[in-house]
Amino acid sequence: MKIHHIAIICSDYAVSKKFYTEVMGLNIIREVYREERQSYKLDLAIGDHYVIELFSFPDPPQRPSRPESCGLRHLAFSVENVSEKRQELVEKGLACEDIRIDEFTGKEFFFTQDPDQLPLEFYEM
């Protein structure tokens, strides 16, 4: 029917919380500390449709991402203006790739990454 949520495990909760709320501009729905798991769970709203669950766990293993490996390749966000979004993120200190054109759709897009090097794509609506 639709995607319910996307779960991300971060290596530094405070850094990732700041990134997803202040840099990416996502809204906090709820934040809980689960003592039995020594884990935070932060639910973040993306518009009215999707939720990112940001988790912290003690000493999570690293996930290889480059060269590309099996598994989730990247997380893509649709935006109205790719150039404006890229400029906004660059001004907030993110290293962003150059804007490219999708050869199949003709739409603009670019990549950056979160604090744990999870590739994030911003794609023209």
Automatic annotation (TrEMBL):
Keyword match Metal-binding: yes
InterPro entries: Fosfomycin_Res_Enzymes, Glyas_Bleomycin-R_OHBP_Dase, Glyas_Fos-R_dOase_dom, VOC_core, YwkD-like_dom
Keyword vocabulary terms for this entry: Metal-binding
Keyword Metal-binding: yes
Start and end residues of each VOC domain: 2-125
MF terms (GO), sorted A to Z: metal ion binding
Pfam families per UniProt: Glyoxalase
Cited NCBIfam families: PRK11478.1
UniProt protein name: VOC domain-containing protein
